[in-house]
Structure formats: structure tokens, C-alpha cells
Design a protein that fits this description.
With 82 residues, the protein is an alpha+beta fold. The chain contains two helices and three strands, in the order βααββ.
Length: 82
Amino acid sequence: MAAEFTLDEARERLVELLDRAESGEEIVITRFGAPSVWLQPARTRSTTGGFAAGVIAASWVVPTAGDAFDVGTDYWPDSSAG
């Protein structure tokens, strides 16, 4: 039987619930009294690089003085690549 937690409980205990799910326990998060999400471990984990293993290449360009630059939305492709 899966352990059930409300959305508010899950928000407060997210790290604990992730640890429990990763160890194989079935965790269900409910919303408005009904099951909404089932936590389960990912099928595979990369052992060669973690998060950055999926990044092939990235390049950032510093804007010239006086230019506005929004890190969240602005980027320029590297003109030297390719």
C-alpha cells in the first residue's frame, strides 16, 4: 500500500518524500482528496557527470557596456561555433 500525502504535506516534506521514493517506497501525493502524483525513482541515473551530462555545448557572451541583458531570456549563439 502506498503512503499518501496531501499537497501541503508534500511541500513541507519534499526532500524526505524523494528519499523515501528513491529507496523504493510508493508515495502518492493527493490534491483535493484524490490521488494526483505517484513518486517513483527514475529508471536510470547517469554515473558519468550527473546533471551536466546532458549538456553538449554552451556559450555565453558578455554584453557591451550599456546594453541590457536579461539572464532569464537573452542569449546569443556563439558565432565562432560551427
